[in-house]
Design brief:
Shape of chain A: globular
Radius of gyration of chain B: 26 Å
Distance between the termini of chain A: 27 Å
CATH class of the largest domain in chain A: Alpha Beta
Number of strands of chain A: 13
Shape of chain B: flat
Largest interface: A-B, 32 and 29 residues
Oligomer: heterodimer
Number of strands of chain B: 0
Helix content of chain A: 40-55%
Low-confidence stretches of chain A: 1-33
CATH topology of the largest domain in chain A: D-Maltodextrin-Binding Protein, domain 2
CATH architecture of the largest domain in chain A: 3-Layer(aba) Sandwich
Strand content of chain B: under 5%
Distance between the termini of chain B: 24 Å
Helix content of chain B: over 70%
CATH superfamily of the largest domain in chain A: Periplasmic binding protein-like II
Structural class of chain A: alpha+beta
Low-confidence stretches of chain B: 1-10
């Protein structure tokens, strides 16, 4: 360990020299590399499966980076499975990349552990601090420091099968929970074999939308101390309403108690499900797996109790710089190149996610179809993050909220399940 | 190491006080070094792959060690606090331990019974059919645990799995009406079928190898004395095969105690449903999902200790002194 720190110190000295050398020019806008990276190599991690045509993108990114800075770029694509462990081991062993795509919910944890750098100063200096998509910036900010540059985001809304909805005569945006319930009961009455609205036990993101939609929160921060509020009256109201769809209105199936979002998508692809809560990236998958169904897609924003747009979990990735990098300047040039300008817009278009800057977002929405518009308004009006605290990593790891959902769908009274979850969460917050 | 070598040699020579004078030190060391030299590659591999990680886990189990400590490379010793925490947690006694021990017990018994029956069956077959059948059951063994588990998850899928479709077709149960994975008993029922299915071929083949070494004369003599088939099995086969049975039972116990993949990959088995957690999954989720490496290591150490105790008891009861 000690030996490695020495090497790092030497590396830091080297990059300080580089920074001095780079002082001559002001680091400009996107891709305007003033840093001389001649003969150097940067490593970058991207997550697998986000972009179906990632290969071409990566090749062009490499060329553009070399043109801008003279440095070589080595892109390594990482599978999501076990990615968290891989990041952690890489940070511990000093075998990490210089720049990596990091999922929003992991940023606070890695930042707190000291694995990734705060980028606030660099971002301010580059004039990029305005015009970020708020939910992403919020997710990447811990103790006032922004730990990554927003890259792309996705949000969940309701995706429907037009044929099935029209057959039952319900195909309009629900303006409130009451509207949504009417839609669901009508669908159920029309054909009780349909899984009118799957209530997922193994994914927390559809559920939290209803907690937020009732005015509740998962947890609240006051003077730097987080307290769980998942058992407060508003949150419990939202959870009860969502769970009752399965428990009282028979809109779901017992199978969905252990369903993840991918399982619901599979059932939707088999046209057993008229509508479900789904990510903004799924229409692309559906287009690939069932092109006929893709023609029949409609989208609605998830309604709140009394309004058409509820807050919905905004997930995505930030481009982060590993603390151990020996080329911080060069690494930031790469982050700029990827998260702004052409490369940002292209990534969003190819992946069906939304870019991390408002400017690029407007561009994508303007060029997109109706579905894109619905998801975009859910994101801009309702995009919301889970509690931004290092403890969230543990809550996610302990599956506290999943357990609560499973218990509720298994018949435990909502208040009891929520109290148990709140106790467990408070335990993590106070550690 | 070298001092114990000399002691060993003294004992072998059987003449203490005499040996050192006749054999010069250099030769003694050389002679003593020879076995260690020959053992060195094996010991080195064991040391690097087993001993070092074990010491590291033991060391971690005495610390409150989190992601932060891992990244900064610092230590945070807390003595036996983790052990106290784990051992006083009702979750261990009410859920995790019963799940682990009960499940292992059922699986070991079932695996042994099914494996032995399969072996007896194979032993009664002619060469051709025996090879065909052995190959067939070896396929079950060759299937990776991951693939096997997914197959069982699909079979028992609550909405469209083969089991529910069949029951639905027979009019016994409606598809999508019950989720097998949410109930502790049905969850472990499915896991048991999976583990036994996956584990019995090894037992069957090992037992078959043993059965084929039992001299035919023993059975003939027993038959002459009027022993029934059961009597022949119990009084001839079992005693002869006892060392093999012991090894099979110990191995199965170890495998079934530390079963992880087969539980973790089932819906709800990854920690989302605490009712079905076992020691392996608990250790994993503590370490890698929550970053409590110290606590995870403590659980792993306890699992190892439990297995050691069980193995010692088994060896003591199943093997006679001279077989050890």
């Amino acid at each position: 360990m000690i030996a490695r720190r020495h090497v790092l110190a030497a590396g830091a000295a080297g990059s300080a020299a580089l920074a001095l050398a780079a002082c001559g020019g002001d680091s400009g806008g996107s891709g305007g590399g003033e840093v001389d990276g001649e003969g150097k190599t940067l490593t970058m991690w991207l997550m697998q499966g986000t972009n179906a045509s990632a290969d071409t993108y990566i090749e062009e990114l490499k060329t553009a980076f070399t043109e801008a800075t003279g440095a070589t770029l080595d892109v390594q694509v990482q599978p999501w499975d076990g990615a968290h462990d891989k990041f952690v081991t890489a940070m511990a062993g000093g075998t990490g990349p210089d720049v990596a795509e990091v999922g929003t919910t992991w940023v606070p944890e890695f930042a707190d552990a000291g694995g990734i750098d705060p980028l606030t100063e660099d971002i301010d200096a580059a004039g990029l601090s305005d015009g970020m998509v708020e939910g992403l910036a919020e997710a990447g900010t811990l103790d006032g420091e922004l730990y990554g540059m927003p890259w792309y985001a996705g949000v969940r809304s309701i995706l429907g099968n037009r044929d099935m909805l029209e057959e039952a005569g319900v195909n309009s945006q629900p303006e409130s929970w009451d509207d949504l319930l009417t839609m669901i009961t009508t669908l159920e009455e029309h054909n009780s074999d349909w899984i009118s609205f799957p209530v997922l036990g193994a994914s927390i993101f559809p559920a939290v939308s209803f907690v937020w939609g009732a005015g509740g929160l998962i947890a609240e921060e006051q003077d730097g101390q987080w307290t769980a509020t998942i058992n407060a009256p508003e949150a419990v109201e939202g959870l009860s309403w969502y769970a009752d769809l399965a428990l009282k209105h028979n809109a779901s199936t017992a199978a969905a108690t252990t369903w993840k979002e991918t399982d619901a998508l599979a059932a939707f692809l088999q046209e057993k499900v008229p509508m479900f809560i789904s990510g903004s990236w799924t229409p692309a998958t559906i287009r690939q797996d069932n092109p006929e169904l893709a023609e029949k897609l409609v989208a609605f924003t998830i309604p709140a109790k009394d309004s058409p747009v509820a807050p919905s979990f905004l997930g995505g990735s930030l481009m982060c710089r590993f603390t151990e990098t020996q080329e911080p300047e060069l690494a930031f040039e790469l982050i700029k190149l990827v998260t702004t300008g052409d490369f940002a817009t292209r990534w969003a278009e190819e992946t069906n996610y939304f870019p991390g800057t408002t400017e690029a977002l407007d561009e994508v929405v303007a060029g997109g179809d109706e579905l894109t518009g619905v998801f975009a308004s859910q994101m801009t009006e309702g995009g919301k993050s889970v509690p931004v605290t290092p403890a969230w990593g543990k809550i996610e790891g302990a599956k506290t909220i999943n357990t609560m959902l499973g218990d509720i769908l298994g018949g435990t009274p909502v208040q009891d399940a929520a109290d148990a979850a709140a106790t467990e969460m408070d335990g993590f917050f106070s550690e | 190491m070298s001092s114990s070598t000399i002691l060993d040699e003294r004992r072998q020579d059987g003449a203490e006080g005499f040996t050192p004078r006749t054999v010069p030190l250099g030769r003694r060391l050389r002679r003593g070094a020879a076995p260690w030299l020959l053992l060195a590659p094996g010991l080195l591999v064991l040391g690097v792959l087993l001993l070092w990680p074990m010491m590291r886990v033991l060391n971690l189990s005495l610390q409150d060690y989190e992601l932060r400590n891992l990244l900064r490379g610092d230590t945070n010793y807390v003595g036996l606090e983790n052990y106290v925490d784990v051992l006083t947690d009702p979750f261990l006694w009410k859920t995790v331990l019963p799940n682990t021990v009960g499940f292992a017990l059922v699986c070991v018994v079932l695996t042994m019974v099914v494996g032995t029956v399969a072996a007896l069956f194979l032993n009664s077959l002619g060469t051709v059919w025996r090879s065909i059948s052995t190959t067939a059951i070896m396929v079950a063994w060759a299937v990776p645990a991951l693939t096997g588990t997914y197959i069982f998850v699909w079979l028992f899928d609550a909405q469209s799995g083969l089991v529910i479709s069949t029951l639905d077709g027979l009019g016994l149960m409606e598809a999508g009406s019950y989720n097998w994975f949410t109930n502790r008993w049905t969850f472990y029922g499915i896991a048991t079928i999976n583990v036994v299915y996956h584990g019995f071929p090894f037992i069957a083949v090992t037992m078959l190898a043993g059965l084929m070494t039992v001299p035919r004369e023993h059975y003939e003599a027993a038959a002459m004395d009027g022993a029934t088939a059961w009597g022949r099995f119990w009084n001839v086969t079992v005693p002869t095969l006892r060392p093999i049975i012991a090894v099979c039972v110990i191995l199965s116990t170890i495998w079934d105690f530390k079963v992880f993949v087969q539980i973790y990959l089932m819906p709800g088995g990854d920690g989302a449903n605490p009712d079905v957690m076992n020691l392996g999954v608990w250790s994993y989720t503590q370490s890698f999902a929550q970053g409590e490496y110290g606590m995870g290591s403590t659980i792993a150490v306890l699992l190892t200790a439990l297995l050691l105790v069980i193995s010692v008891i088994y060896i003591r009861t199943l093997m006679k002194e001279e077989e050890l």
